[in-house]
Amino acid sequence: MDPAAGAAGSSSSRINRTSLERERRTRFRQLFSRLYSLLPPQAAQMSTQQVLERATVYVNQLRNRVEELKQMNSRLEEESKERRGQLSSTFPFLSIIDLDSTLEVNLITGRNGKFQLSHILKILMEEGAQIVTAAADHSAGDTIIYSIHCQPICSRIGIATSRVHERLENWFLEAN
Fold first, then answer.
1. Same domain for 11 and 79?
2. pTM exceeding the 0.90 threshold for the entire prediction
3. DSSP conformation letters of 69-88
């Protein structure tokens, strides 16, 4: 075997490995960038480890949210079946979901309920929430579905979810 040919072959395989490693790193950066873009906005840059830990926490939060929504759907279906024969169906239901950087509040009630979106918004704003979206859907027959998405006015302070939950439940019970 010619030593020059062996050196050329070794050099060629080294270049091939280098090229493959460069492509692997590029692909990793692209996938990492995509993962980072799927996470809620962050106030500061994070290390790779922090992003991966954050992604793990976020996926678990989403998994829990899906489970909560499935349970809510089951409860609503059961209540709907129970109340089909009644003319004035009122089934107040309050759900507060903390998604770490955002808060989602859902209230489902009958048209004759004493709930007003402005009362919910006032409580949220008093607790340091900035309303991103708020809507009341009247198209669901004799029910009204309120849906509010908010985020903290100051990201360092955040929203005291337990306090918001307590205040909304107290208001909810008083109004009912």
1. no
2. no
3. HHHHHHHHHHHHHHHTT-SS
